[in-house]
Design brief:
The structure holds three protein chains of three kinds. Chain A is mostly helical. Chain A is built from 14 helices and no strands. Chain A has one domain. The longest helix of chain A is centred in the N-terminal third of the chain and has 29 residues. Chain A is globular. The two termini of chain A are 16 Å apart. In chain B, helix 3 packs across helix 5. In chain B, helix 7 links the parallel strand 7 and strand 8. In chain B, the strands form two sheets. In chain B, strands 6-7-8-3-9-10 form a six-stranded mixed beta sheet, with helices on both faces. A four-stranded antiparallel beta sheet of chain B has the order 2-1-4-5, with helices on one face. The longest helix of chain B has 20 residues. Chain C starts with a helix and ends in a 14-residue tail after the last helix. By secondary structure, chain C is mainly alpha-helical. Chain C contains eleven helices and no strands. In chain C, 50% of the residues are buried. In chain C, helix 2 packs antiparallel against helix 3. Classes of the chains: A mainly alpha, B alpha/beta, C mainly alpha. Chains A and B meet through helix 1, helix 6, helix 7, helix 8 and helix 9 of A and helix 2, helix 3, helix 4, helix 5 and helix 6 of B.
Chain lengths: 351, 254, 303
């Protein structure tokens, strides 16, 4: 099986690349470079990567503008935070065996992601019936509604749960800022999304994006694939939300999840290239790090982004990376002058 | 007596006050190649749209292998066994030739989200299988060497063949070809003719063909149905139809 | 205050804000009707007009002229902004890109205007000062009456313009079928530019009436206003001029009522954001149940 052998080789190379990255992080850590500030930026990059990559599934591959992605992140963030709170309380009360922080975090993360996915279903089913412009506005509307509802939930503010108070920031959230765990979660998420794209699902949604009617004529249940992708994307927004909630500040503000936040990720996806996972990852990291590195620049951030966005739309609507996908395997093959066997691929240009 | 593959009784659709198609009847047996002709605006593509679930019939019914198909969605009808090509070729122009065919196999792929994401054994097996099958199909149409071309870069005649290949990849029993020879020069039309004959030989397929190119129609169709103003005005063997005064009047104008 | 009086008061409040929404929605619906683009930046044109007023009102007063005459300048500034945005951003993208790029460009322009204003003027709200001295009749402020009156005048003028002038009919043609209009010799680009000029000019008028009633200018004021006015336009029937008027008033009343009554139901929990949620819910319901809006024609789905 030709393609399997090639994909296996590619997988091994990618794994090696990831391990290398992990090693770099380990070195930075042991050398004491990872103070809380750098750590914070690193975690910010991680959840930005997950958010941008998951949004790209809907915007780039499926070809729909979704302006409410922060809403799903909010669902994931609050759900996971409340779950870890509840677990913490239950352990203290003795009704639950003591669990490590990591275990608590993962339970919270899973709950958050599933909750976000459910909301993805709720929003997706009505929204995906509509055309581009209207779909954008409806997702925006849903995003705002989610935020407003959270703002008014008594158990989602203040100390939360039974002691909660609506309209306040949620405080006292458990901290999970272990570099390796967050990194691992991010890598796994991106890997899963790439696997999704390079399968029948990726092919299907690209076809639907290109020509909805022809896709139906070729036997695709377009509604099924649209909703599935939307839910899948929301799931990962939930994961990102969980990471965000536990990043260490210990608080969650509902004002963190406005339309403006959704716009941040839309900008990342559009600039990076709709339909390029590589683009989303790179741009997410870039746009997370740049405002920190260039502090003065931070004030004019949005102004600059909006200008770049317009210029991009005029001169290079496909974004920085277009539909290009980076492949370590392909790069190494070229370096060592070994031609990879021709593969049929889900998106032209990726190996 | 052979079973009907596609059967329509009193089929019709009205848009508001306009009766676009009415009292349409047809009975296609396995392996037949029937032509559907008529002047522009007669309702031929509307009939196709009815048969493929794009429009929902407001009168009558149609059956595939005896099963009622009214009200089913397009992809359900494709799954049942009716596939079509379009008057203006609707290929996925930015995808490769191979990918265009692979899309049509999607509905039969068994692996689901977990299989895809965790790369199960079934995933690898099925992905390899559909590529093999796609190559076989492309070879029938002599497109195998262009498998990695972008579909939009193919010459027109080959684009049409690819569209037919994609339709066949859905494992259809009933093929609806909407003006396949449109925009083709005589060489391409002759190739198309040969192509259609080949697929009739190789696949157990029944074909309903809309066409304006009379040479193709007369040459290849076993039977012809003529419609005008949304209703059937004549049907029969090609020789009968070409001499039918009603048909001549419809084409030459009133 | 008994229930009925409270209710009527809220209706009046609703008219107050709804009349402004109606004016904004008129501009929105005009532009959408022509180029089928949700101009995300439309709300921000209001902000541009408001800042223009902020600077010219004191000048007018100093020159001894009535404050509201500064509307002339504001209209000019807004129209110019609209034309520039159209020519520099929307037009090139429309030529090269698809619907998705156009929408993203609109979002980008909105962000640009908001942040540019913040860079120029800072984020602190500014007051403009009294624009009109109108009597209050039946408890309804004179400003509200004026706003509604202006809305009606604009609505009627637009309808007459579209029906009886060559430019107006060109607009109608382009909104029905752009390609056909091109073939008929209509200067489509000119028509689109004119539409933007008028639409943005209307935004200036809307900002005048907004300032008259709310007297506060910030760089972000346009974003929520614009979104709610869009909901109003959709509710009334997108692309339909009287629909914008109707939708605006309805949304204003709904918002006002929900603000008043939800606080009593939920016991004083934050309400203003909740009324936003209700407005968005209306949008969602309209889009799913009758996308053509209240006054929209029920065009059956023809594939």
């Amino acid at each position: 099986m030709r393609i399997r052998k090639d994909h296996t080789r590619s997988l091994i190379v990618s794994l090696a690349g990831v391990c290398l990255l992990g090693l770099i992080i380990f070195l930075a850590d042991t050398l004491g470079l990872m103070d809380s500030y750098i750590r914070g930026i690193f975690i910010q990059c991680c959840f930005a990567v997950i958010m941008a990559a998951s949004l790209n599934l809907v915007m780039g591959y499926l070809g729909q503008i979704a302006l409410g992605h922060a809403g799903f992140m909010a669902v994931g963030a609050y759900t996971s935070a409340l779950v870890t709170k509840a677990i913490g309380l239950a352990i203290k009360a003795g009704s639950m065996p003591a669990l490590s922080n990591v275990a608590q975090f993962f339970i919270g993360l899973l709950c958050g992601a599933i909750a976000a996915a459910l909301f993805g279903l709720l929003v997706g089913i009505p929204a995906l019936r509509l055309r581009g412009d209207y779909l954008a506005i409806i997702t925006l509307g849903f995003g705002e509604i989610i935020r407003v509802v959270i703002q008014n939930l008594p158990f989602a503010g203040g100390k939360g749960l039974a002691n909660g108070q609506a309209g306040q920031a949620l405080i006292g959230i458990m901290r999970m800022n272990d570099l390796y765990i967050i990194f691992a979660v991010t890598v796994v998420c991106v890997a899963i999304m790439i696997a999704f794209v390079r399968s029948k699902f990726g092919r299907a949604i690209i076809a639907i994006r290109e020509d909805d009617i022809a896709s139906s004529a070729a036997g695709l249940n377009t509604t099924h694939y649209k909703v599935l992708t939307f839910v899948f994307s929301a799931f990962f927004a939930g994961v990102a939300g969980a990471i965000y909630a536990h990043r260490g500040l210990g608080t969650l503000q509902y004002s963190d999840f406005t339309f403006l936040k959704s716009t941040d990720f839309v900008i990342m996806v559009v600039l990076g290239g709709m339909g390029s996972m590589t683009g989303s990852v790179v741009t997410a990291v870039l746009l997370s790090v740049l405002p920190e590195v260039l502090r003065a620049f931070a004030d004019y951030r949005m102004l600059l982004y909006s200008i770049i966005l317009v210029l991009m739309m005029i001169f290079r609507p496909t974004g920085l990376f277009g539909t290009y996908e980076f492949s370590l395997y392909r790069l190494l093959s070229r370096l060592f002058r070994k031609k990879p066997e021709t593969l049929s691929s889900a998106a032209k240009g990726d190996v | 007596m052979a079973e009907s593959v596609l059967k329509a009784t009193n089929l019709g659709i009205s848009f508001g006050g306009l009766r676009a198609v009415h009292d349409f009847e047809i009975d296609l047996k396995e392996g037949e190649l029937v032509g559907l002709i008529g002047p522009n605006g007669a309702g031929k593509t509307t009939v196709f749209n009815l048969f493929t679930g794009v429009y929902k019939p407001t009168e009558g019914a149609f059956y595939l292998d005896g099963k009622l198909m009214n009200g089913k969605k397009t992809h359900e009808i494709v799954a049942a066994g009716i596939a079509r090509t379009f008057q203006n070729i609707r290929l996925f122009k930015k995808m490769t030739v191979m990918e265009n065919v692979l899309i049509a196999f999607t509905k039969d792929i068994q692996y689901g989200l977990p299989g895809a994401v965790f790369r199960s054994g079934g995933f690898w097996r099925e992905e390899a299988e559909i590529r093999e099958k796609a190559m076989e199909l492309l070879t029938v149409f002599n497109l195998q060497d262009k498998a990695d071309w972008n579909a939009g870069n193919l010459p027109y005649g080959q684009q049409r063949k690819l569209e037919i290949a994609r339709a066949l990849a859905t494992k259809a029993r009933m093929l609806l070809l909407d003006e396949p020879a449109a925009g083709m020069n005589p060489t391409e039309t002759a190739e198309l003719l040969a192509c259609i004959n080949t697929i009739r030989r190789k696949f157990a397929i029944t074909i309903l063909l809309i066409e304006h190119d009379m040479s193709l129609v007369m040459n290849i169709c076993e039977r012809i149905v003529v419609i005008d103003y949304g209703e059937i005005i004549a049907q029969g063997l090609p020789e009968e139809i070409s001499h039918d005064p009603k048909v001549i009047a419809a084409y030459l104008g009133e | 205050m008994d229930g009925l009086t409270l209710f009527i008061q809220q209706i009046i409040n609703g008219l107050r804000v709804g009349s402004v929404y109606a004016l904004i929605a008129l501009g929105y619906t005009m532009v959408y009707g022509i180029i089928r683009l949700i101009n995300f930046a439309h709300g921000d044109f209001i902000m541009v007009g408001a800042y223009a007023l902020f600077f010219t009102v004191p000048l007018m007063i100093a020159a001894g002229m009535p404050a509201w005459m500064s509307i002339v300048f504001a209209v000019f500034v807004c129209a110019l902004t609209g034309i520039l945005v159209e020519k520099l951003a929307y037009s090139p993208v429309r030529a090269r890109g698809n619907n998705m790029s156009a929408l993203i460009t609109a979002i980008a322009m909105s962000l640009f205007l908001e942040n540019f204003a913040q860079t120029l003027f800072g984020a602190n709200p500014k007051q403009v000062g009294t624009l009109f001295n109108l009597p209050t009749i039946l408890g309804i402020s004179g400003n509200t009456f004026l706003t509604i009156l202006i809305g009606v005048v604009v609505m009627v003028s637009l309808s007459l313009f579209v029906k009886y002038t060559k430019n107006g009919q060109a607009m109608l043609a382009v909104s029905e079928d752009k390609e056909a209009s091109l073939l008929m010799g209509v200067n489509v680009n000119h028509t689109i530019t004119l539409t933007f000029a008028i639409g943005s000019g209307l935004a200036a008028v809307a900002s005048l009436m907004y300032i008259a009633q709310y007297n506060q200018v910030t760089n972000m004021m346009g974003s929520m206003l614009g979104l709610k006015a869009f909901v109003a336009a959709v509710l009334g029937g997108i692309g339909i001029i009287p629909g914008a008027m109707l939708g605006g008033l309805v949304i204003g009343i709904v918002e006002s009522l929900s603000k008043a009554y939800i606080s009593t139901i939920t016991g004083g929990v934050i309400t203003s954001a909740f009324s936003d949620a209700i407005v968005f819910s209306i949008l969602i319901i309209v889009l799913l149940v009758k996308p053509t809006g209240i006054l929209g024609k029920n065009t059956g789905e023809k594939v």
